[in-house]
């Protein structure tokens, strides 16, 4: 399953991607879907197998703009 980490800050999204990749997770920057309801245009996309690493990356950094995780639901995404 595809997971998105949604942020309200582009800079924090990119910092999170760097941290997550540093933990060995495959992750990409992607356009934030409209369902997220945030202004930032990019999110971090990764597979759910890397969710524990993503949570670790979040807890080890300062990501005040983190909005939440979204998962693919049909043709769109939803927060979980």
TrEMBL record:
Name the UniProt record assigns to this protein: DUF3343 domain-containing protein
Ranges of residues in domain Putative Se/S carrier protein-like: 4-59
One Pfam family cited in the UniProt record for this chain: Se_S_carrier
Classification of source organism: Bacteria, Bacillati, Bacillota, Clostridia, Candidatus Gallimonas
InterPro entries to which the protein is assigned, alphabetical: Se/S_carrier-like (IPR021778)
UniProt superkingdom: Bacteria
